[in-house]
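Margin note from the TA: students keep mixing up input and output lines. Inputs are the sequences; the output is the structure of the whole complex. Example:
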Amino acid sequence: MVETATSLGRSGLQDWLIQRATALILAAYTAFLLGYLIMHPSLQYETWRALFFFQPMRYVSLLAVLSLMAHAWIGIWTVSTDYVKPVTIRFFLQAMILIALLGLLLWGIQIIWSI
Amino acid sequence: MKRRPVNLNFATIHFPVTAWVSIAHRLSGILVFLLIPVLLWMLRESLASQERFTALVHLFSSPMVKISLWILLAALLYHWIAGIRHLLMDIHVGESKAGGKRGAWLVIVLSLIAFTLVGYWLW
C-alpha cells in the first residue's frame, strides 16, 4: 500500500516538476538581479526604482515571488518530512511554515505592486 | 534474530563528497528560507523612498552587516550552484557514480570561487 504524500501538487511527480520549474525561474531571476547590482556599482534610487516600476519587471518579480514561496514550501516540506518524525509536531510545524510563506507571499506582492 | 552490525562512531563514519554537497544544499536552502523576510524587507526599504534607500545603503557599509550579507549571499550562491547540478543530473549530465563525484567537487570549487568573488565585490 503506497500512501500519497505530497506537498503542493496532486502527485509526487507534480511536486518534482514544480520544484524544477520554479528553480529555473529563481535561478534566472537571482542571476539577473545579482548581475544588475554588480554592473551598477554606484546605483541611484531613481534607477533602481525605475527598474521595478517597469511593467514587465513587475510581472517577472511577481512570478519570482510566487516561485520562491512554492519552491521553499516543497523544499521545507521534503526536509521536514525526512527529519521530523513525530506526526503531530511535524504537522504543526508544517502548518506554521505554510502560514508564514503565505503571509510572506502577500507581503511580497504588496511590495512589488505598491511601487 | 540475527544481530546486525551497528556503527554509531562518528569518527569512523565517512560520508562521500556527494553526501556533504547534498546536506549542504539542504542546509543552505533552509538558511535562505529563514532569510526570506530579510530579503523582502531589503526590497521594501530599497524601493520605499529616497531617504530609506540611502539609509539602507548606509546600513550596508557597516562591517557586521557586510558579513551577514556575505553569509546570506554565500548560502544563496551555494544553493544556486548545487541546484544547477541537480537540474543537469535531471537531463542525465554527470549522473554516473564517478560523474556525481566530479560534479560534487565542481560544486565545491565553483562555490568557493563565487564566495571569494562576492566577498571581493562587497568590500
